[in-house]
Amino acid sequence: AGTVCAGWLPVHGAAQSESPETLALLLSRGADLHARTKIEVTALHVAAFNGRLASTKLLVCRGADVHAQDKDGFTPLVNAQHRLTDCPCQTEDRLAEWGAVIAFLEKVTPMTAEERRAFAARSWALHVASKLLPVAETGDLETLAPLLECFSLDVDAADFDGAAASH
Question: b or e along 93-125 (b: 16 or more beta carbons within 10 Å of the residue's beta carbon)?
């Protein structure tokens, strides 16, 4: 875990976690992806700062504002860059992907909102397909059922070949 700021909601905690599935479930249940903490941090700021690539993609595809600034004027991209290079809170978090988060945000930031959402949606769909397809192929309903709950908005996500879990 990390330091929790005043005003954090479950959506912020899920964006910090190593589980994009938790974040997907919260968003599918109506969590506010634009919610801000007392220091004006959004879930996208939190995901980027913590190097959570899948969560960053999910938030952008759902419409999170990549240009949102916290109370110090920092965007999610600046947060990720700071954490990777200058932050005194360096970590050995093997699951964090700051370089990939930075590259993703650098690519989508100059796009129009529609282009950004479409690009992120395709990237997120690939992540979802990589989780759903193997489980669907084995017929493991105990594992598949909770994944379908988490990914209820993305059950038709397809891989590079166009295969979805329903196939």
Answer: eeebbbeebbebbeebeeeeeeebbebbbebbb
Round the average pLDDT of the chain to a whole number and report it: 88
| Structure-block tokens of residue 125 | 């769909």
Kindly write down the DSSP assignment for every residue of the chain, as one continuous string.
Answer: --PPPTT--HHHHHHHSS-HHHHHHHHHTT--TT---TT---HHHHHHHTT-HHHHHHHHHTT--TT---TTS--HHHHHHHHHHT-TT----TT--HHHHHHHHHHHTTS-HHHHHHHHHHHHHHHHHHHHHHHHHHT-HHHHHHHHHHTGGGTT-B-TTS-BTT-
Percent of the chain at pLDDT exceeding 90: 58
